[in-house]
Amino acid sequence: MLSRIMSGSIRNLDREYDCTVRLLDDTEYTCTIQRDAKGQYLFDLICHHLNLLEKDYFGIRYVDPDKQRHWLEVTKCIAKQMKSQPPFTMCLRVKFYPPDPAALKEEITRYLVFLQIKRDLYHGRLLCKTTDAAMLAAFILQAEIGDYDPGKHPEGYSSKFQFFPKHSEKLERRISDIHKTELIGQTPDTSELNFLQKAQMLETYGVDPHPCKDVSGNPAFLAFTPFGFVVLQGNKRVHFLKWNEVTKLKFEGKIFHIYANQKEDKKIILTYFAPTPEACKHLWKCGVENQAFYKLEKSSQVRTVSSSNLFFKGSRFRYSGRVAKEVMEQSAKIKREPPEIHRAGLVPSRSCPSITHGPRLTSVPRTRRRAVHISIMEGLESLRDSAHSTPVRSVSHGDSFMPRSRSLARDASEGSAVISDEAYSPSDSMLPTPVAEHSLELTVARQVNGAPCSIKEEKESEAGTPSVGDAGDLSDSRATVEGAEGASPLSEVEQVNTFVLSVLRLLLVTIGLLFVLLFLLIVLTESDLDVAFLRDIRQTPEFEQFHYEYFCPLRRWFACKLRWAGSLLINK
């Protein structure tokens, strides 16, 4: 009896597994789901936990054993997508940024989007000028601590919060001045809404940068925004194609192609090289989903897309879900009491570690709601739950800023050069989409950049974005990181191999089609099958002429050759 109960328990354990999802406020949701459960089931569980109805803007991101990030497909089995052993670790992030955050129906949705963009600002995906950065940080400050109170907020209180990878005293003073004078009386939801409206006006709003190289071997970042396809080099936008101009997205191996029609029937093709074939496929799928979500009028217009022009090769993918216009229409029908929002308190977060290693609080909160097994924690460390593939690298220009951190100012006497307060590059060091050898690359990049590095901070860093060092070492650090991150264009040998494989594939398919046609011909001419459509074909004059004038002589010739070959074999 006991053995029967234990065997039943083991079978139940085999059919279930634990899954942990880190949410946007750094809390964790852990659940047990069936082994054959699909992504939609887990996504609905999380949305129910958050009391979220406008859920089409969000998605679940995970990392495969090869350290490549993916979006969980809601129509497929979770276990088959993860390709690893449970327990599984994932994170909830904004997948499709709202074109107009102010138009979102519910405050809970705006709050979650606010948390996402706050992460983007810290990790360097949202680039902006000094004045815009100070205003955005002041909105965050107002939303999290309320009005300025001299009794609670001593001089330099804004330095205790980490809004960007770098803080300068000048920028901190600007943030404090705005918070003290311009935002008095704003409630958290009002400050969050103002923050979203300000962020939406920036060029890099909604950017999910994918590291690539152009045909000349120059590093570039490809991104899909609510308004179109973007190519960034440094902090400059070198290409922008609206979604109605993009006609096709293709990839083969590491090569990614964008086809577009611009005004006056001008057709352009952009070609880029991803670090790995897996990263290129992920880039293509992201592009297909974003184009369908923002471009189409109805989800019924969504079609299965192939990565190649030939039906027998390449990958096929279909976006499953509602499009942006349908989501807005559905949101307008929501009629319920606004759900209560539990804004997390200010506690240290490993998402935004202190750069100066001091007792500094952070602007991204983290509260533990349940204890998690150490293996799950190790999975979260490898996940580095950044919402996007990688931060955007930016270069100092006249319209950007790069504040120096206080730690660098204190280390100036030890030989560190001081970076100008008028240039900002929150992610001048970055990691590629595949995050293999994550901690090693982080250590090398940070040591090259001259910033202090500790094992603890490496483990705490959410996206693995190291600090920027002195200006003299900037070019060397870029060369070091770029050498490790990008994929160089295919060599001539690889191009020849790719061409040969394509030709062989085409030849095999052609031979297969010929065999199929031969089989059908034999069935038509030699079989006695009395099927209606075969009988109709046999009775046509064209077929009778072909049968008596071509097929019968060919059959006699083959039979003669076979008898001749048989006689030779018998005589030997």
Q: What is this structure's SSE topology?
A:
Blueprint: H1 2-15, E1 16-22, E2 28-34, H2 39-50, E3 58-63, E4 69-71, H3 78-82, E5 88-94, H4 107-123, H5 130-145, H6 169-181, H7 188-200, E6 210-214, E7 219-225, E8 228-233, E9 236-242, E10 246-252, E11 255-262, E12 266-273, H8 277-295, E13 305-306, E14 316-317, H9 324-331, H10 374-383, H11 406-410, H12 438-448, H13 455-460, H14 474-485, H15 492-526, H16 532-538, H17 541-571
Parallel strand pairs: 1-5
Antiparallel strand pairs: 1-2, 3-4, 3-5, 6-7, 6-12, 7-8, 8-9, 10-11, 11-12, 13-14
Helix pairs in contact: 4-7, 5-6, 5-7
Protein name: FERM domain-containing protein 5
Keywords: Cell junction, Membrane, Phosphoprotein, Transmembrane, Transmembrane helix
Region (Disordered): 347-368, 385-430, 453-480
Mean pLDDT: 75
The strand count comes to 14
> How many H/I helical runs?
17
Q: What structural category arises from helix and sheet content?
A: alpha+beta
Radius of gyration: 30 Å
Low-confidence stretches: 346-490
**Global shape:** elongated
What gap, in angstroms, lies between the N and C termini?
74 Å
Strand percentage, roughly?
Answer: 5-15%
**How is the biggest beta sheet arranged?**
7 strands, antiparallel
Strand order of the largest sheet: 9-8-7-6-12-11-10
Percent helix range: 40-55%
InterPro entries: Band_41_domain (IPR019749), FA (IPR014847), FERM/acyl-CoA-bd_prot_sf (IPR014352), FERM_2 (IPR035963), FERM_central (IPR019748), FERM_CS (IPR019747), FERM_domain (IPR000299), FERM_N (IPR018979)
Transmembrane segments: 499-525
Domain FERM: 17-298
Main location: other
